[in-house]
Amino acid sequence: MAKDSRISSILLFGIPCAGKGTVGKAVSAEFPRIFYHLPSGDLVREAQKARGELAEKINDYLQNGILVPDEIMIPMYRGAVAARMASGAFNPDSQNLLVDGMCRTPAQAEELSDFLDFREVWNLTNVPNCEALKRSGIRAEEGRTDDTQNAMLKRIRDYWTVTYPTLDFFASRGTHIHCVNAYEPKSMVVEEMKRYVKVRFRVTGEWRP
User: Fold this and answer.
1) How far is CA 110 from the centre of its chain?
2) Per-residue model confidence (pLDDT) at position 205
3) Contact, 139 vs 17, CB < 8 A?
4) In whole angstroms, how far apart are CA 68 and each of 23, 160, 174?
5) What is the pLDDT of residues 31-53, one digit of tens each?
6) CB-count burial class (<10 Å; 0-12, 13-18, 19+) for 105
7) Is the Cβ–Cβ distance between 23 and 193 less than 8 Å?
8) What are phi and psi of 39, to 5 degrees?
9) CA 147, CA 158: separation in Å to the nearest integer?
10) pLDDT at site 1
11) Domains within the chain, CATH numbers bracketed
């Protein structure tokens, strides 16, 4: 049987402002030998800063709370993964890719599964809509220009109607889904995920370089 050439990956999943980026950053920093965090939001904001038609389109999507289409996001993410492999920043032979901000629809998840082998989904759950709006307001004050209230309201609606069914896609494939209460303070959520990783991945000591 031919070896599966797909990249071992874990999906960070949850409502906007659930803390996916916080968890991904903390876990990859704590266990850099076994995780590499690649948030799509960073890629999108980098593209926004560039001049040209693509930057204008992305800016329009974000300002209106519209998901950036697959024909833009999937090649962008695939290219970013390839670039980090080429530079040596990400080693798929030893690290799991923490996928953050992708699989926004079942169709996108299926297409990404052609090159990403999703071993687990970390579902950051229990965050009410009102709490997500509150957190987005804090991010807006910190400079996130795409976190306007109107845009966030639409993103939250889209999460429940468009993105949330993606969990069914992974469940139907038998993918392990680990749920964590993301309504807790960030520090507690991060510590819980670190404990989970130590047990799940049998980490017995400090994994810092």
Assistant:
1) 15
2) 59
3) yes
4) 23, 17, 28
5) 999 999 999 988 988 887 777 88
6) middle
7) yes
8) -85, 130
9) 15
10) 35
11) 7-200 (3.40.50.300)
